[in-house]
Amino acid sequence: MSQVIYDRPLGPSADDEQHRAAGDPLAKTKPVGVTRQRTRLVEIVIPVHNEQLVLADSVQRLHAYLTESLPYPFRITIADNASTDATPAVAAELAAELRQVEVLRLEQKGRGRALRAAWSASDAPVLAYCDVDLSTDLAALLPLVAPLVSGHSDLAIGTRLGRGSRVARGMKRELISRCYNLILRGALGAGFSDAQCGFKAIRADAAAELLPLVQDPGWFFDTELLVLAERAGLRIHEVPVDWVDDPDSRVDIVATALADLRGVLRLNRSLGSGALPLGDLGARLGRAPARRAGVPVGIGGQLLRFAGIGVISTAVYLLLYLLLRDPLGAQAANLGALLVTAVGNTSANRAITFGVQGRRGALRQHARALVLFGLGLALTGGSLAVLHAVTGDPSWSAELLVLIAANLVASVLRFALLHTWVFAGRASEETGH
Asked: Is the overall model pTM greater than 0.90, yes or no?
């Protein structure tokens, strides 16, 4: 259960009445599912878990900046998800001290869960959030929310990877971030540049439609929300930000990365099944749905998509092979790694490269894909057998080089057969070309 602690009774303030009288675009907008009278135009949520040391300073800085620089009425909500230190007490003190600060307490952990609860309960037409460390320069806050206030965009994100961004962080985090966003482009066809920056905003009417479809309660929440919004044809505005890495961040990078990869696979399956009502969602919000799965027109664009998915598949295949090589041996490791990646590769190419969604024809297409799996197994397994016959006991590096070469040959044949046989006709039918 969630407990909401307010520093004052809900109700329109003098600032709100003045804002409505000025004729602001969202003053009379009522998002789906919200029945309470509006009390603020912009609500900024700060999700926290055991942040007693930095919470007070960050909230006071944010409040001072908003009071001085934001031309819209605002509210700050501290969304405490299951803190076990003094965070709840610090948050309550801030709510008592600062008029526009409120607290939402959840007994379960999860940043996505905290954002969902806070945004769902909000009566503001523009919803935003920022990380408690305030790594993103607050000067980007007005450019973030202004397109949503005007109605130009449905979501807005801060990007550390766009032109004009200035970022100070270690090489490890930089590499992980860029690789993750590359995976999103290859596996999910994402068009936005930075899924992980903790600096985002959304219109309440879009949030009311999207939040029931987002399943992840943790760090993948942002990515899932953005991918679903993009697939529904909603407009996403990107703001280059100045960003400084928090050296005291307690985020478990490895665990978060693995959870994100699981989220990518789950979301890929959901999108590939065609079960999500994204077309209707965009229509309800007055946006035309995006071309299905971001599918490019023509064989050139399909080749680029196929190559991106292939790079990711090959990397995962080689990693699995190395993990299985010792306990299972070369041929069994090759079979296991190839089987796992072939299923994911087919699903990704079905939805992203060739734009085929829904269950219709899926069984036949995956059955045909088994033929391609057999072809790939014959090429890779045969290459390994020849290598062992010639050298006797080859090194792991020699095995990997042979497997990479065999996979390249198999990939050329795979694309040709996917294009001309497995998905022939269905891709053009689905995309309208």
From this structure: no
